[in-house]
Amino acid sequence: MKKKKKNLQKVIPYMVLLIIAGAFLLPLLWLVFAAFNPEASQAFAVPKYMSVENFRVILTDAKNQRGFLNSLFISVVQTGIVLVCSLLAAYPLSRYELKTGQKITMGMLFLTSIPITAVMVPVYQMFIMMKLVDSIGGTIIFLSASGLPYGIWMMKNFLDGVSVDLEEAAWIDGASAVKSVVHVVLPLMLPGLFTVAMFTFVGSWGNFFVPLILLQSTEKIPAAVNIYRFFGERGQVIYGQLAAYSIVYMLPVFVLYFFSQNYMSKGFAMTGASKG
Amino acid sequence: MVGTRNQQKRKIWKTALFFSPSILLLGVFFIGPMIMTVFFSFTDISLTGSSAQAMKFVGFRNFIEIFKDPKLLTVLKNTMVFLVFSGIIGQQCLGFLLASLMRGKNRLVRKFVGFTVVAGWITPEVIAAFMFSSFFADAGTLNKIIGIFGASPVSWLFTFPMACVVIANIWKGSAYSMMMFQASLDNISDDIVEAARIDGAGGLQILLRITLPMIKSTMATTFVIVTLSTLGAFGLVFAMTGGGPAIMTTTLSIFMYQKAFIAYQIGYGMAIALFILAIGILLSLVYIRLIRANDGN
Q1: Which CATH superfamily is domain A61-269 in?
Q2: Which residue numbers in chain B have pLDDT < 50?
Q3: A27 → chain B, closest CA residue
Q4: Chain A residues closer than 8 Å to B265 by CB
Q5: B30: which of A58, A166, B9, B214 lies 20 to 30 Å off by Cα?
Q6: Rg, C-alpha atoms of chain B
Q7: How wide is the angle at C-alpha B122 spanned by C-alphas B119 and B124, nearest 5°?
Q8: Option in A113, A250, A254 nearest B225 (CB)
Q9: Among A14, A19, A24, which would you mutate to test the B interface (most chain B Cβ atoms within 10 Å of its Cβ)?
Q10: CB under 8 Å to B54, separation ≥6 — which residues?
């Protein structure tokens, strides 16, 4: 009797966990099945026969190709800018013990948690005045700025973990600060750089609000806005194609996730807000 | 003495130099707009019409107009409901439940469950919106499931639109709380829990007397972050319901979007933005306080 109760106590948490996992998985499974189903509807169904027709239609459309390329370009360039700027900024924050440095670090943490939504209206106004509306470059710069506080904060924490001793040894050997960063710190910083890159890229890739406001021309919009326009503004939606589009659009970030799970949990552990 | 002062000076200069690209970007594109919000919310600036050219100060008119708007009360209520149910109750509690259930479980189960939850976090919000509007659609998965049990279909997105977006947002955002709680629970040593158990403490007592007090600070910080990100949430709700039907799912951020970019009343939109920003700044300050207090311990 008692043993039974104990067994039950052990099984229940597993059951609860699996039920939650199943509930989380269900919408995703719909997406996967619908993508390969030529007769997909809005309801979950196992396809009678599998086909890649939906993918073919989506991927051969010139507008969609353009959307994916725009997304890739925006996200890669933004990630590059955030990496360089945050590394440069985090270095003195971590290495020089200045009072202002601590204040700046706290300022960065403060900025990470300001919702981007709150600045979108003034940013649009500013972009009109600077004649930057509908410019991919302008959008990238704004996205970079919005990703910087979190980048700097994470980078500073990673740099704190890299021992100063090695660097000092390089200095004594006559290396300049820049040289010691490039040859000594940078290789040790690779996991940190990777984490910052991954967070920035995922945030940028999925971003919808910023390009929705700042970009307008069909040939400039990234995949997020393209898919919204493509399916949101048409009456009759072909669900199989919608699902196929979604899968293609999600794939890069999921692949990135599988390669960097450990780095990701490190980024989360750093506290600070990661804004999607 | 002189040497150290020179060194100090050099350090400050170097810091400034290294920081300049970031300062430029943040100053112009982040802090600048924050200040602009304050300035423009007192003007009648708009994108079309005469006031587009000649903008003038109108004092508190935008704010008075907002408070007179009959929609405001509903919008605030929607925002609160969305915040409390999807952010605080949903993501926080589910995140904690998941993290505590996963503690000490089989590695494979942990990985699998973890993946299903994190999948929501990495899924772009537009996709999440499509997935859930299909899930709740009249001919969608949910109606098919309840159909199996003999229930007749429900128009979820029209009858319970808020519940639909709340569930979608829980799906999208629970990963953050889960990961934070996991990290924090990992810090509680098994010995303490075991010792309490030997002393005769039950599951509930362990939860209330040991676990919760030890993860108090994590709860506080995730609470602030979840609140801020839910307050700023836009794409998910917008792509799912567009704020409708009528204004049943219009939250503050969607209200702001409609005023500024659909009705072209930028000044009015700015005033709403300022409100969101003010809450954001307030909570961020609380957040920093919490982080600093934790570091002190």
Answers
A1: MetI-like (1.10.3720.10)
A2: 1-2, 50-51, 297
A3: B131
A4: none
A5: B9
A6: 24
A7: 115
A8: A113
A9: A24
A10: none
Residue of A121, A146, A225 for testing the chain B interface, max B β-carbons within 10 Å: A121
Q: What is the CATH number of the domain that holds B191?
A: 1.10.3720.10
CB contact under 8 A, B26 and A111: yes
Contact status of A265 with chain B (Cβ, < 8 Å): yes
Measure B66 CA to nearest chain A CA, in Å.
Answer: 16
Cβ proximity of A134 and A217 under 8 Å: yes
Which residues on chain B are in Cβ contact (under 8 Å) with A93? 15
Structural domain boundaries in chain A: 1-51, 61-269
Domain ranges, residue B102: 81-244
Angle between helices B141-148 and B125-135 (to 10 degrees): 30
Residue B294 · residue B217 · CB < 8 Å: yes
Supply angle C-alpha A112, A115, A120, rounded to 5: 120
Contacts of B102 in chain A (CB under 8 A): 17
Any domain includes B146: yes
A276 pLDDT above the threshold of 70: no
Identify which of B19, B127, B231 has the shortest CB distance to residue A89.
Answer: B19
Write the pLDDT tens digit of every residue in B55-97: 778 778 888 888 888 888 999 999 999 999 998 889 999 999 9
Cα A99 to its chain centre, rounded Å, is: 32
